[in-house]
Amino acid sequence: MALSKDRIGKNAILLLLSDDSSEHLAMLEQLNWKSCTGKVGSMDEHKVVAAIETAAKKNGIINPDVYRESHALYHAIIEALNGITRGQVQLGSVLRTVGLSFAVLRGNPYENEQEGDWIAVSLYGTIGAPVKGFEHETIGLGINHI
């Protein structure tokens, strides 16, 4: 499926689910968009947030010295986690654990450059009781303006 210059969420999900992410990364670079991918597993939602924030900072997706960039990323992560956890962003406190892959994508999905950059976080993996075999697939997406 082809990437679309006006669909940041779709592109974040395609990057996440791609069997050949290098091909998608090359196409995103042509759009002047920044991206990174990674994995995280935990019973603590704050560790999921921290892993995604750390990857975004290390890969130059956001400038950690500019508060609005960190703030936008945080809200995109929380929105994606809401999808993963079905609206209750709780893991270990209710005996749930996740094993997730993530993609973070930053770019301007509008024709008008003055619209500025947006950020999307996509999550895919498993969620369930902390017992092997007691989990199911899950996916979440969060998008926020910077």
Any key phrases for this structure?
alpha+beta; Hut operon positive regulatory protein HutP; 4 helices; 4 strands; 36% helix
Q: Gist?
A:
Belongs to the HutP family. The protein has 146 residues and is an alpha+beta fold. The chain has helices at 8-17, 21-30, 45-58, 67-84, and strands at 34-42, 97-107, 118-128, 135-145.
Notes on the protein architecture:
- The chain has 146 residues and is an alpha+beta fold.
- It has one domain: Hut operon regulatory protein HutP (Hut operon positive regulatory protein HutP), CATH 3.40.1510.10.
- The protein is 36% helix and 29% strand.
- The chain has four helices and four strands, in the order ααβααβββ.
- It has helices at 8-17, 21-30, 45-58, 67-84; strands at residues 34-42, 97-107, 118-128, 135-145.
- Strands 1-2-3-4 form a four-stranded antiparallel beta sheet, sandwiched between helices.
- A hairpin with a 6-residue loop joins β3 (118-128) and β4 (135-145).
- α1 (8-17) packs antiparallel against α2 (21-30) and α3 crosses α4 (67-84).
- The two termini are 27 Å apart.
- The model has no long low-confidence stretch (mean pLDDT 89).
CATH superfamily: Hut operon regulatory protein HutP
CATH class: Alpha Beta
Q: Strand share of the residues?
A: 25-35%
Low-confidence stretches: none
Taking all Cα atoms into account, the compactness measure Rg is 15 Å
**What percent of the residues sit in helical stretches (DSSP H or I)?**
25-40%
The 3D shape can be described as: globular
The CATH topology assignment is Hut operon positive regulatory protein HutP
Main sheet makeup: 4 strands, antiparallel
Number of helices: 4
CATH second-level architecture? 3-Layer(aba) Sandwich
Give the rounded overall mean pLDDT.
89
Provide the domain count: 1
Structural class based on helices, strands and sheet pairing? alpha+beta
Gap from first CA to last CA? 27 Å
Order of helices and strands: HHEHHEEE
DSSP strand tally? 4
Function: Antiterminator that binds to cis-acting regulatory sequences on the mRNA in the presence of histidine, thereby suppressing transcription termination and activating the hut operon for histidine utilization.
Family: Belongs to the HutP family.
Organism: Lysinibacillus telephonicus
Protein name: Hut operon positive regulatory protein
